[in-house]
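Hey,

The postdoc asked me to send both predictions to you directly instead of through the lab channel. I've kept everything plain text so nothing gets mangled by the mail client. Protein one:
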Amino acid sequence: MERLPDLADLTHAEKDALIHLLWDWVTALRQEVVRLTAEVTRLQGEVAHLRGQMAKNSRNSSIPSSAEGLKKTKSMRKQGSRPPGGQPGHSGSTLKQVAQPDHVVDHPLPEVCDVCGESLTGQATTEIRQVFDLPPVTMEVTEHRIHALRCTCGKLHRSEFPPEVTAPVQYGPGVKAQAVYLTQHHMLPVARTANVLADLYGVPISTGTVQAMIGEASERLAPTVARIADAVAQADVAGADESGFRVAGKLNWLHTAVTDTLTWLGLHAKRGKAAFEDFGLLYRLKGTLVHDGWASYRELTCTHALCNAHHLRELTFVHEECGQAWAKRMIDLLVSAHHETVAAHGQPLTALRIQAIRTHYEAILAEAAAANPEKPASGRRGRTAQSVPFNLYRRLRDHADDVLRFTTDPRVPFSNNLAEQAIRMPKVKHKIAGCFRTTEGAQAFCIIRSYLATLQKQHFDLFQSLIQVFKGNTPQPNFSG
């Protein structure tokens, strides 16, 4: 910067010029301060956002625990609320001796004493130990023969093969059921399933044959799964969820709709409205749908209930990472209300108690509103970005009835865990396989998994049920649940 001249030596015109120059400098500096202040504010917001993203985990957000690697996070469950081991009422599976063993091996005493040499006489006591093991398993081949004989009158008489025996050599329902059971329920890859069958039973089976068995099961079960979808659509309360699913190298979406006793899964290239329309299930639902609040579910005309497990995680983030005390009070209120509904054993809470919960809820929301004023419109297109605490507060405020639906309707669960659980095992299958190579294979998985998950909820023997499926006698679940 140039050295300023002595003011006493300047003329009036030079003094005026100097004043204008200084004014221009001050104006420029003010503008730079305003720009830098705005830049600092923006960067502080970015830093806060990034810190929030880094702080998110399966405990305080919707990030799945599988995405956290080896990082250990603190459970939301209170210590001592569910101690390790079998829970009260659990029947257990302890090995017990049986009255009629398949084989008995006697280990006789010596004839004489090894100390004195006298003969051992008298009544011996007996101690029993039993060993449970699997017998050697080998392939069993059943040969079917038909016969032909021509009568003296000229007519040829010919016996017939059973309807299920269609080829000179083929696998029976037990092998088919085993292949489907391992791949679709226990999530083994097709190649490993073929190896297991070869190693355990000496079954020389190819991956293509296993795939064909899966396709046959899907075709046989499709009508039953269609009935499951109809039954879910008619339920008083259902849960829905969706998750990304890679098929043939492209992103697809796995959709689920469930009740306490029914599970339905479907695959679609789209996540929202287009999938709902093609499936038709959710559009037919007239009861209450439990979901995570995603916008596409909001367009459905049914009654809504929001998953409070999501809210507890988000409230934990707002309390622990943003330092807002109202979030902890909301957690305590929701958890306490949930315990009340559980203790009511399916009976509705009293109107007075429901009103007390709602009053407390609205008082906490008032605290949240004071702590999180809405940012004014920025003048840019679209909605102004708001903070994480404000967005959560707004959802809890705008959809309070749906958040507290579990307090007013005892049929409605506190969370959407049933639907999330239905997604979990297919995601395990997806992670093991990387992706499904064909759309047909993924759709077959959805059909078979819908059937098996439903039967599991209703305590069917899955393996024996699959054997009956391949025999043409598909066991039907209870559709009224």
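Protein two:
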Amino acid sequence: MLAPAVSLACALLLAQPGNEAPVLQPPTTPLPVQAWHAPTVCLRLPPTKDVPSGEWRAQCDDTAQVCRVSPLRELDAEGVETDRLQARVTTCSIPFDEETAERVKGYRMEPARAAAPPGWYRDERGRVMQFNFDLNRRVWLGGAWAPLWHDGQVQGRMRADFGIAVEAPSHRGKRLHRLRFLETELHLGVPSLDLTAARYDFSVERDDPLFRVTTFFGKPRRHDLHLNLGLWMETLRVEELERGGEVGRFLTWGTIHATVDLWHSKDLVSYVRVRAGPSFERDAANGFNTFVPGAALEADLTVDRDGFHHLRLGVEAEKVLLAPAVAGRPLRPERLRLQAGYEVIILAINDQPLSLLVDGRGVKRGDIAGVPEQWEWSASAGLRFSLWAPARRSAPMATSVKE
């Protein structure tokens, strides 16, 4: 392969006096795609009707004596170049010298499509679009219709939600750190607020098994049992809600849970796990601090390669301890929460996904004085727009199959 070139300004005119000008071949269908990591040169070919500037990006194979070339700029609907440079392309970085010009002047110049980075696709006009999205790394803003079934009545509600999610794998890929900031849900109609300032957890794939079990039914076989222990923490969670004219206000100073992954995907992004541990909470409505142990079984699953389908499931139980007696509620109230949600991307605006989110929830709690301990159910359907959502770390390269 030829070495890359720095820029078009450094490119050599192949059609110099005394040199035979390369001839651009007719395009094939579908157009071949240049390689993303291959060396690229910027060059000038004789002007054509569609590319009057004659400015191209090329990847050349000395063995086959072929250069795959794509226009430096995007094309319009009629296939004529515009003033817009192609976006998200690799740069040309080494001068295209006279020796190189002499070597390639007799090569076949075959039209091609410029490569796009993983998770992105380039169309026949040179425009790029994102087709792969990471819904675990994003900044989102959403709204939904979320009616509530409570005390035998259906009450209309609207929900607004916001959050920031970040993931960072370790250098060996054996640990995945997750952070969430300002995760917020605000319900209007039957008012409530749930806001968490910060949450952190990690999943890990341990190399050494906790137990090695050997079976002797026929040929001896060894079975390694791993215990993938992790950590889950959150701080400054504010919850405020109104039920039956009574108001509950709770501030969680901090929560720390140990986690065990029952299953996780190879890249640690999707998981099924259990977690358990204590929280330290303030009951602001009644003016005292409490100790709240809890446990949860939860799943977070990205179910397709390109991140379009996302499923979340959860069952959580908490018990409020070390609280003084409060009239109208049990001495040691309990909370039970069930949740199942599905999110699917329906389109993208400026390469940021707009998704449809549906979920169902059930809550049973006895920590609000004067409100009977009973199940309440809600369902929601709404839209969520990601202000930032990069391609997944496992995003593939696009090919002409995407056409």
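Summary for protein two, as requested: The two ends are 28 Å apart (CA to CA).

Thanks,
C.
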